[in-house]
Amino acid sequence: MPDPMVSLLRRRRLLQGALAASVAPALALPSLPAHAAAPWPQKAVRLVVGFPPGSSPDALARTVADPLAQALGQPVIVENKVGAAGTIGVNAVAKATDGHTIGLTGNGPLTTAKALNPATPYDVAHDLRPVSLVASSPFVLTGSMGMPATDLRGLLAYAKAQGDRLSYGSVGPGSGSHLAMELLKALTGLQAVHVPFPGFPQVATALMGQQIELSFMIPSIAAPQAKSGRLRLYGVSTATPFAAFAQVPPVQPALGAGKAFDVASWNAIFGPASMPQPVAQRLSDEIARILKAPDTRQRLFDQGWQAIGSAPDALARKIAEDTAMWGDVIKRTGARSE
Predict the structure, then answer these.
(1) Model confidence pLDDT, tens digit, residues 74-111
(2) Where does the pLDDT of residue 8 fall: very low under 50, low under 70, confident under 90, or very high at 90 and above?
(3) Tens digit of pLDDT for each residue in 205-254?
(4) Which of 199, 287, 329, 332 would be 132's cystine partner, CB 3.0–4.6 Å?
(5) Could you tell me the pLDDT band of residue 333, with boundaries at 50, 70 and 90?
(6) Helix, strand, coil % in the chain, rounded to nearest 5
(7) Among 206, 216, 175, CA closest to 333
(8) Dihedral, CA atoms, 286, 288, 289, 291, nearest 10 degrees?
(9) Are 76 and 47 within 8 A, CB to CB?
(10) Which CATH architecture has domain 45-137+264-333?
(11) What is the DSSP letter of 35?
(12) What integer pLDDT is reported at residue 6 of this predicted model?
Protein backbone atom coordinates (compact mmCIF):
# COMPACT_ATOMS: atom_id res chain seq x y z
CA MET A 1 0.00 0.00 0.00
CA PRO A 2 1.21 3.49 -0.73
CA ASP A 3 2.53 5.51 2.16
CA PRO A 4 -0.23 7.98 3.24
CA MET A 5 2.37 10.64 4.02
CA VAL A 6 3.91 10.35 0.53
CA SER A 7 0.48 10.65 -1.08
CA LEU A 8 -0.27 13.77 0.98
CA LEU A 9 2.98 15.41 -0.09
CA ARG A 10 2.31 14.60 -3.75
CA ARG A 11 -1.18 16.10 -3.58
CA ARG A 12 0.24 19.26 -1.91
CA ARG A 13 2.88 19.66 -4.65
CA LEU A 14 0.27 19.22 -7.35
CA LEU A 15 -1.99 21.81 -5.70
CA GLN A 16 0.89 24.32 -5.36
CA GLY A 17 1.77 23.83 -9.03
CA ALA A 18 -1.80 24.44 -10.10
CA LEU A 19 -2.01 27.61 -8.02
CA ALA A 20 1.28 28.91 -9.44
CA ALA A 21 0.09 28.24 -12.98
CA SER A 22 -3.16 30.14 -12.38
CA VAL A 23 -1.44 33.17 -10.81
CA ALA A 24 1.50 33.47 -13.25
CA PRO A 25 -0.50 34.91 -16.18
CA ALA A 26 -1.93 37.60 -13.91
CA LEU A 27 1.53 38.56 -12.67
CA ALA A 28 2.76 38.81 -16.25
CA LEU A 29 0.15 41.46 -17.12
CA PRO A 30 1.14 45.13 -16.68
CA SER A 31 -0.46 46.80 -13.68
CA LEU A 32 -3.22 49.27 -14.57
CA PRO A 33 -4.33 52.31 -12.58
CA ALA A 34 -7.69 52.13 -10.92
CA HIS A 35 -8.81 54.95 -13.24
CA ALA A 36 -7.02 56.96 -15.88
CA ALA A 37 -6.95 60.73 -15.35
CA ALA A 38 -9.24 62.57 -17.75
CA PRO A 39 -7.45 64.96 -20.10
CA TRP A 40 -7.57 68.63 -19.09
CA PRO A 41 -9.23 70.89 -20.04
CA GLN A 42 -12.52 69.29 -21.02
CA LYS A 43 -14.38 72.57 -21.53
CA ALA A 44 -13.81 76.34 -21.71
CA VAL A 45 -11.46 77.81 -19.13
CA ARG A 46 -12.53 80.92 -17.21
CA LEU A 47 -9.75 83.47 -16.64
CA VAL A 48 -11.02 85.74 -13.86
CA VAL A 49 -9.60 89.27 -13.56
CA GLY A 50 -10.47 91.33 -10.50
CA PHE A 51 -10.06 94.65 -12.30
CA PRO A 52 -12.13 96.43 -14.96
CA PRO A 53 -11.79 96.16 -18.74
CA GLY A 54 -8.95 98.36 -19.95
CA SER A 55 -6.92 98.00 -16.75
CA SER A 56 -3.37 96.66 -16.87
CA PRO A 57 -4.33 93.21 -15.48
CA ASP A 58 -7.17 93.00 -17.98
CA ALA A 59 -4.87 93.89 -20.89
CA LEU A 60 -2.35 91.25 -19.78
CA ALA A 61 -5.07 88.62 -19.44
CA ARG A 62 -6.36 89.30 -22.95
CA THR A 63 -2.82 89.19 -24.33
CA VAL A 64 -2.36 85.68 -22.94
CA ALA A 65 -5.90 84.31 -23.42
CA ASP A 66 -5.96 83.68 -27.18
CA PRO A 67 -2.60 81.88 -27.52
CA LEU A 68 -3.37 79.91 -24.35
CA ALA A 69 -6.68 78.80 -25.85
CA GLN A 70 -4.86 77.57 -28.95
CA ALA A 71 -2.40 75.63 -26.79
CA LEU A 72 -5.12 74.04 -24.63
CA GLY A 73 -7.58 73.31 -27.42
CA GLN A 74 -10.43 74.98 -25.50
CA PRO A 75 -11.65 78.61 -25.28
CA VAL A 76 -10.15 80.80 -22.57
CA ILE A 77 -12.77 83.36 -21.57
CA VAL A 78 -11.70 86.49 -19.67
CA GLU A 79 -14.24 87.38 -16.99
CA ASN A 80 -13.99 90.64 -15.03
CA LYS A 81 -15.11 90.40 -11.40
CA VAL A 82 -14.37 93.90 -10.15
CA GLY A 83 -14.20 95.27 -6.63
CA ALA A 84 -12.36 95.48 -3.31
CA ALA A 85 -9.01 96.27 -4.94
CA GLY A 86 -8.99 93.00 -6.87
CA THR A 87 -9.83 90.68 -3.98
CA ILE A 88 -13.33 89.85 -5.24
CA GLY A 89 -11.82 88.28 -8.34
CA VAL A 90 -9.21 86.34 -6.38
CA ASN A 91 -11.85 85.07 -3.96
CA ALA A 92 -13.96 83.85 -6.90
CA VAL A 93 -11.03 81.70 -8.04
CA ALA A 94 -10.29 80.46 -4.52
CA LYS A 95 -13.90 79.28 -4.14
CA ALA A 96 -14.21 77.80 -7.67
CA THR A 97 -15.06 74.08 -7.81
CA ASP A 98 -15.59 73.52 -11.55
CA GLY A 99 -11.95 72.58 -12.20
CA HIS A 100 -11.73 75.05 -15.10
CA THR A 101 -11.32 78.44 -13.37
CA ILE A 102 -8.03 80.33 -13.11
CA GLY A 103 -7.25 83.95 -12.32
CA LEU A 104 -4.89 86.78 -13.13
CA THR A 105 -4.20 89.58 -10.67
CA GLY A 106 -1.71 92.21 -9.65
CA ASN A 107 0.51 91.56 -6.67
CA GLY A 108 -1.56 93.41 -4.09
CA PRO A 109 -4.35 90.82 -3.66
CA LEU A 110 -1.70 88.09 -3.32
CA THR A 111 0.74 89.85 -0.97
CA THR A 112 -0.78 92.76 0.98
CA ALA A 113 -4.56 92.27 1.03
CA LYS A 114 -4.69 90.23 4.24
CA ALA A 115 -2.38 92.59 6.14
CA LEU A 116 -4.35 95.61 4.98
CA ASN A 117 -7.72 94.01 5.71
CA PRO A 118 -7.82 90.97 8.02
CA ALA A 119 -11.37 90.29 6.82
CA THR A 120 -10.09 89.38 3.33
CA PRO A 121 -12.06 86.17 2.67
CA TYR A 122 -9.25 83.95 1.40
CA ASP A 123 -5.84 82.80 2.58
CA VAL A 124 -3.30 82.84 -0.24
CA ALA A 125 -1.15 80.04 1.21
CA HIS A 126 -4.07 77.65 1.73
CA ASP A 127 -6.71 78.60 -0.84
CA LEU A 128 -4.69 79.23 -4.02
CA ARG A 129 -2.34 77.29 -6.33
CA PRO A 130 0.46 79.45 -7.84
CA VAL A 131 0.90 78.97 -11.60
CA SER A 132 3.14 81.63 -13.18
CA LEU A 133 4.42 85.17 -12.96
CA VAL A 134 3.31 86.90 -16.16
CA ALA A 135 4.92 90.33 -16.27
CA SER A 136 6.67 92.88 -14.07
CA SER A 137 7.20 96.62 -14.16
CA PRO A 138 8.92 99.07 -11.84
CA PHE A 139 7.41 102.18 -10.36
CA VAL A 140 9.13 105.39 -11.41
CA LEU A 141 10.03 107.98 -8.78
CA THR A 142 8.54 111.09 -10.35
CA GLY A 143 8.77 114.73 -9.33
CA SER A 144 7.13 118.01 -10.24
CA MET A 145 9.03 120.52 -12.35
CA GLY A 146 9.04 122.81 -9.31
CA MET A 147 11.58 120.56 -7.60
CA PRO A 148 15.06 122.15 -7.74
CA ALA A 149 16.93 118.82 -7.86
CA THR A 150 17.59 117.39 -11.30
CA ASP A 151 19.12 114.04 -10.30
CA LEU A 152 18.31 111.31 -7.80
CA ARG A 153 20.99 112.03 -5.18
CA GLY A 154 20.16 115.71 -5.25
CA LEU A 155 16.48 114.93 -4.87
CA LEU A 156 17.02 112.70 -1.83
CA ALA A 157 19.20 115.31 -0.13
CA TYR A 158 16.72 118.10 -0.86
CA ALA A 159 13.67 116.09 0.19
CA LYS A 160 15.27 115.00 3.44
CA ALA A 161 16.15 118.60 4.30
CA GLN A 162 12.53 119.70 3.76
CA GLY A 163 11.14 117.52 6.52
CA ASP A 164 7.35 117.24 6.29
CA ARG A 165 6.96 120.29 4.03
CA LEU A 166 6.89 118.03 0.95
CA SER A 167 4.01 115.76 -0.03
CA TYR A 168 3.69 112.72 -2.25
CA GLY A 169 0.76 111.21 -4.10
CA SER A 170 -0.40 107.60 -4.40
CA VAL A 171 -3.46 105.77 -5.65
CA GLY A 172 -4.65 105.05 -2.13
CA PRO A 173 -3.62 103.67 1.27
CA GLY A 174 -1.96 100.29 0.94
CA SER A 175 -1.41 100.61 -2.80
CA GLY A 176 1.96 99.78 -4.32
CA SER A 177 2.69 103.46 -4.93
CA HIS A 178 1.95 104.23 -1.28
CA LEU A 179 3.97 101.36 0.20
CA ALA A 180 6.95 101.97 -2.11
CA MET A 181 7.27 105.54 -0.85
CA GLU A 182 6.84 104.46 2.75
CA LEU A 183 9.66 101.95 2.29
CA LEU A 184 11.85 104.68 0.78
CA LYS A 185 11.03 106.95 3.72
CA ALA A 186 12.04 104.24 6.17
CA LEU A 187 15.39 103.76 4.41
CA THR A 188 16.26 107.44 4.00
CA GLY A 189 14.58 109.41 6.76
CA LEU A 190 12.30 111.31 4.36
CA GLN A 191 9.17 112.74 5.98
CA ALA A 192 7.02 113.63 2.96
CA VAL A 193 3.27 113.62 3.73
CA HIS A 194 0.97 111.14 1.98
CA VAL A 195 -1.86 112.46 -0.23
CA PRO A 196 -4.08 109.72 -1.74
CA PHE A 197 -5.81 110.06 -5.14
CA PRO A 198 -8.34 107.91 -7.03
CA GLY A 199 -5.87 106.97 -9.78
CA PHE A 200 -2.55 107.75 -11.47
CA PRO A 201 -4.02 110.27 -13.93
CA GLN A 202 -5.10 112.40 -10.95
CA VAL A 203 -1.66 111.99 -9.35
CA ALA A 204 -0.03 113.17 -12.58
CA THR A 205 -2.34 116.19 -12.75
CA ALA A 206 -1.47 117.13 -9.16
CA LEU A 207 2.26 116.77 -9.89
CA MET A 208 2.04 118.90 -13.01
CA GLY A 209 0.05 121.51 -11.07
CA GLN A 210 2.73 121.39 -8.32
CA GLN A 211 0.10 120.59 -5.70
CA ILE A 212 2.33 117.68 -4.63
CA GLU A 213 6.03 117.15 -5.19
CA LEU A 214 6.66 113.40 -5.55
CA SER A 215 5.12 110.06 -6.44
CA PHE A 216 6.03 106.53 -7.37
CA MET A 217 4.09 106.23 -10.62
CA ILE A 218 3.54 103.55 -13.25
CA PRO A 219 5.68 104.05 -16.38
CA SER A 220 2.77 104.23 -18.81
CA ILE A 221 1.47 107.38 -17.09
CA ALA A 222 4.76 109.01 -16.07
CA ALA A 223 6.73 108.56 -19.30
CA PRO A 224 4.58 110.60 -21.71
CA GLN A 225 4.43 113.55 -19.31
CA ALA A 226 8.19 113.41 -18.72
CA LYS A 227 8.82 113.28 -22.47
CA SER A 228 6.76 116.44 -22.91
CA GLY A 229 8.77 118.20 -20.18
CA ARG A 230 6.00 118.39 -17.59
CA LEU A 231 7.42 115.90 -15.06
CA ARG A 232 10.85 114.68 -13.96
CA LEU A 233 11.82 111.01 -13.70
CA TYR A 234 14.36 110.43 -10.94
CA GLY A 235 14.69 106.66 -10.58
CA VAL A 236 13.12 103.25 -11.09
CA SER A 237 12.10 101.16 -8.10
CA THR A 238 13.78 97.93 -9.22
CA ALA A 239 17.34 97.13 -8.17
CA THR A 240 18.46 96.83 -11.80
CA PRO A 241 17.72 99.15 -14.75
CA PHE A 242 14.48 98.65 -16.65
CA ALA A 243 14.93 98.26 -20.40
CA ALA A 244 12.10 100.63 -21.31
CA PHE A 245 13.71 103.37 -19.18
CA ALA A 246 17.39 102.68 -19.63
CA GLN A 247 18.21 106.35 -19.06
CA VAL A 248 16.53 106.36 -15.62
CA PRO A 249 18.78 104.89 -12.87
CA PRO A 250 17.62 102.50 -10.13
CA VAL A 251 16.90 104.14 -6.79
CA GLN A 252 18.82 101.57 -4.72
CA PRO A 253 22.47 102.64 -5.42
CA ALA A 254 21.69 106.17 -4.28
CA LEU A 255 20.59 104.92 -0.86
CA GLY A 256 24.03 103.70 0.21
CA ALA A 257 25.49 100.35 1.16
CA GLY A 258 23.34 97.81 2.95
CA LYS A 259 19.99 99.32 1.96
CA ALA A 260 17.90 97.09 -0.27
CA PHE A 261 15.20 98.67 -2.40
CA ASP A 262 13.76 96.40 -5.08
CA VAL A 263 10.08 97.05 -5.69
CA ALA A 264 8.00 96.08 -8.70
CA SER A 265 4.42 95.89 -9.77
CA TRP A 266 3.74 92.40 -11.12
CA ASN A 267 0.89 90.24 -12.32
CA ALA A 268 0.47 86.49 -11.97
CA ILE A 269 -1.80 83.62 -12.93
CA PHE A 270 -3.05 81.24 -10.26
CA GLY A 271 -5.75 78.65 -9.62
CA PRO A 272 -7.70 77.34 -6.64
CA ALA A 273 -5.85 75.10 -4.19
CA SER A 274 -7.83 72.15 -5.57
CA MET A 275 -6.07 72.46 -8.94
CA PRO A 276 -3.89 69.36 -9.48
CA GLN A 277 -0.18 70.10 -9.62
CA PRO A 278 0.21 68.58 -13.11
CA VAL A 279 -2.43 71.02 -14.41
CA ALA A 280 -0.63 73.96 -12.79
CA GLN A 281 2.65 72.81 -14.32
CA ARG A 282 1.13 72.45 -17.78
CA LEU A 283 -0.36 75.94 -17.58
CA SER A 284 2.97 77.30 -16.38
CA ASP A 285 4.81 75.66 -19.29
CA GLU A 286 2.32 76.96 -21.86
CA ILE A 287 2.37 80.49 -20.43
CA ALA A 288 6.18 80.54 -20.42
CA ARG A 289 6.16 79.51 -24.08
CA ILE A 290 3.64 82.24 -24.94
CA LEU A 291 5.67 84.90 -23.13
CA LYS A 292 8.86 83.91 -24.97
CA ALA A 293 7.29 84.75 -28.33
CA PRO A 294 8.93 87.93 -29.72
CA ASP A 295 5.62 89.53 -30.71
CA THR A 296 4.16 88.97 -27.23
CA ARG A 297 7.26 90.33 -25.52
CA GLN A 298 7.18 93.43 -27.73
CA ARG A 299 3.50 93.96 -27.10
CA LEU A 300 4.05 93.87 -23.34
CA PHE A 301 7.18 96.04 -23.63
CA ASP A 302 5.13 98.69 -25.43
CA GLN A 303 2.73 98.65 -22.47
CA GLY A 304 5.62 99.15 -20.01
CA TRP A 305 5.92 95.51 -18.93
CA GLN A 306 8.73 92.97 -18.93
CA ALA A 307 7.42 89.52 -19.85
CA ILE A 308 8.47 86.81 -17.37
CA GLY A 309 6.85 83.37 -17.29
CA SER A 310 7.91 81.37 -14.23
CA ALA A 311 7.55 77.98 -12.61
CA PRO A 312 4.82 77.61 -9.94
CA ASP A 313 7.37 77.32 -7.12
CA ALA A 314 9.09 80.54 -8.24
CA LEU A 315 5.78 82.40 -8.00
CA ALA A 316 5.17 80.88 -4.57
CA ARG A 317 8.55 82.17 -3.37
CA LYS A 318 7.87 85.63 -4.80
CA ILE A 319 4.53 85.81 -3.03
CA ALA A 320 6.12 84.78 0.28
CA GLU A 321 9.01 87.25 -0.04
CA ASP A 322 6.80 90.22 -0.92
CA THR A 323 4.23 89.33 1.73
CA ALA A 324 6.96 89.46 4.39
CA MET A 325 8.51 92.69 3.06
CA TRP A 326 5.24 94.59 2.76
CA GLY A 327 3.91 93.16 5.99
CA ASP A 328 6.68 94.97 7.86
CA VAL A 329 5.92 98.26 6.06
CA ILE A 330 2.18 97.93 6.67
CA LYS A 331 2.71 97.17 10.34
CA ARG A 332 5.01 100.17 10.77
CA THR A 333 2.74 102.64 8.94
CA GLY A 334 -0.58 101.28 10.20
CA ALA A 335 -1.90 101.33 6.62
CA ARG A 336 -5.38 99.89 6.03
CA SER A 337 -7.30 99.40 2.82
CA GLU A 338 -10.28 101.63 2.21
Answers:
(1) 999 999 999 888 999 999 999 999 999 999 999 999 99
(2) very low
(3) 999 999 999 999 988 889 899 999 999 999 999 999 888 888 899 999 99
(4) 287
(5) confident
(6) 50, 20, 35
(7) 175
(8) 120
(9) yes
(10) 3-Layer(aba) Sandwich (3.40)
(11) S
(12) 40
Report d(CA 113, CA 176) in Å as an integer: 11
CATH architecture of 140-255: 3-Layer(aba) Sandwich (3.40)
Q: Does residue 204 contact residue 224 with C-beta atoms inside 8 Å?
A: no
Q: Is the pLDDT of residue 28 over 80?
A: no
314-317 own/partner pairs: CB under 8 Å, 24+ apart: 314/133, 315/130, 315/131, 315/132, 315/133, 315/268, 315/270, 316/130
For residue 171, the Cα-to-chain-centroid distance in whole angstroms is 19
17, β-bridge pairs: none
- For CATH 3.40.190.10, list the domain ranges present in the chain: 140-255
